[in-house]
């Protein structure tokens, strides 16, 4: 359904660039059908060389594309929506906003149009087609939601949620990449301290975390069930785990996620730049 559509990714920074790479690598979307915008267009020249269209003018991009994937910062959203409003055709365009903390209602109010809007919360795993993308829409937008689901399913897993859960999806899924990477970094630092060179410590830590995640996803088990299989009685794992818990490991992760969730409600401010 979406494969023959033209797609604009508006505001190509870290996330927009990751989405572009993932869509191209999926083989399902041709870069010639994807236009990328940002104001400093020289910074996305590499995408032009990779076959994508690149454009400084958001209005031209919107006129060319059927689907508008928005990836600007929350504080940049109002200015962008004001600029885009004249080009948004409610009968043609589907807007997919990846912007944290800006509701569908706020987007439509700023556009002053009853546009079709889907919210998406992917993560930078899209670049390697391993994103966890939460999607939400409202009312009668089923076809648009299915289109968004189709797009993001080519770059990872998708889950449809209520819009009220978007801030939670941001903290757990989108910020989560950074949280788990920090855990991997800490593990590799431990590995260095007990004798591995940095590159080998990182390989062991990263591959081990990949295996741990796949155990959960493929066996559909609870982490504690998998942990029980690692913790040999009187063994070394349980001693390490208990020491980590005494130091507040689970508590730190939970408190960090709650802090990010709380902040997601406060990000949308008037025009930063
Ligand atoms: N990074 C992540 O992992 C995730 C981010 N998000 C959300 O995605 C959004 C983008 O995040 P992120 O990629 O990290 O941020 P970045 O700052 O890296 O990207 C934003 C990009 O938007 C461009 N931009 C700003 N205003 C305009 C405009 N008017 N027209 C065209 N381009 C514009 C900027 O480039 P220039 O200044 O050159 O125009 C910049 O490259 C945020 O809302 C964030 O909350 C959601 C999930 C995950
Ligand atoms: O840090 C941020 O605000 C964005 C939202 C989720 C991931 N990055």
Folded structure, characterized:
It is an enzyme of class 1 (oxidoreductase). It catalyses: L-proline + NAD(+) = (S)-1-pyrroline-5-carboxylate + NADH + 2 H(+); L-proline + NADP(+) = (S)-1-pyrroline-5-carboxylate + NADPH + 2 H(+). One of its GO terms (cellular component) is cytoplasm. This protein is of the alpha/beta class and 273 residues long. It has two domains: 7-162, Rossmann fold; 176-264, ProC C-terminal domain-like (ProC C-terminal domain-like fold), CATH 1.10.3730. It is built from twelve helices and eight strands. It has helices at residues 14-26, 45-49, 58-64, 77-84, 104-111, 142-153, 166-174, 176-193, 198-219, 223-230, 236-246, 249-264; strands spanning 7-10, 34-37, 53-55, 67-70, 94-97, 116-121, 131-136, 156-160. The chain has an eight-stranded mixed sheet with strand order 3-2-1-4-5-6-7-8, with helices on both faces. The chain is elongated. The two termini are 36 Å apart. The model has no long low-confidence stretch (mean pLDDT 96). Bound molecules: NADPH dihydro-nicotinamide-adenine-dinucleotide phosphate and (2S)-3,4-dihydro-2H-pyrrole-2-carboxylic acid.
List the helices and strands and how they pair.
Blueprint: E1 7-10, H1 14-26, E2 34-37, H2 45-49, E3 53-55, H3 58-64, E4 67-70, H4 77-84, E5 94-97, H5 104-111, E6 116-121, E7 131-136, H6 142-153, E8 156-160, H7 166-174, H8 176-193, H9 198-219, H10 223-230, H11 236-246, H12 249-264
Parallel strand pairs: 1-2, 1-4, 2-3, 4-5, 5-6, 7-8
Antiparallel strand pairs: 6-7
Helix pairs in contact: 7-12, 8-9
(2S)-3,4-dihydro-2H-pyrrole-2-carboxylic acid binds near residues 100, 170, 174 and 175.
């Amino acid at each position: 359904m979406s494969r023959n559509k033209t797609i604009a990714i508006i505001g190509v920074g870290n996330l927009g660039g990751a989405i572009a790479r993932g869509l191209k690598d999926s083989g399902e979307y041709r870069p010639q059908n994807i236009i990328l915008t940002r104001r400093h267009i020289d910074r996305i020249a590499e995408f032009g060389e990779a076959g994508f269209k690149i454009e400084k003018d958001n209005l031209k991009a919107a006129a060319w594309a059927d689907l508008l994937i928005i990836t600007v910062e929350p504080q940049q959203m109002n200015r962008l929506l004001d600029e885009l409003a004249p080009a948004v055709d409610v009968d043609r365009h589907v807007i997919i906003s990846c912007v944290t903390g800006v509701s569908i209602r706020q987007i439509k109010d700023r556009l002053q149009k009853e546009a079709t809007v889907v919210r998406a919360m992917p993560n930078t795993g899209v670049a390697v087609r391993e994103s966890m993308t939460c999607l939400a829409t409202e009312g009668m937008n089923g076809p648009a939601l299915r289109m968004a689901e189709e797009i993001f399913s080519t770059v990872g897993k998708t889950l449809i949620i209520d819009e009220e859960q978007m801030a939670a999806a941001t903290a757990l899924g989108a910020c989560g990449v950074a949280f788990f990477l920090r855990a991997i970094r800490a593990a590799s630092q431990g590995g260095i301290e007990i004798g591995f060179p940095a590159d080998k410590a990182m390989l062991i830590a990263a591959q081990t975390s990949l295996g741990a995640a796949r155990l959960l996803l493929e066996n559909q088990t609870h982490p504690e069930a998998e942990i029980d299989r690692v913790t040999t009685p009187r063994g070394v794992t349980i001693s390490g785990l208990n020491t980590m818990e005494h130091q507040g490991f689970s508590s730190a992760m939970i408190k960090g996620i709650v802090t990010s969730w709380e902040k997601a409600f406060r990000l949308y401010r008037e025009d930063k730049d």
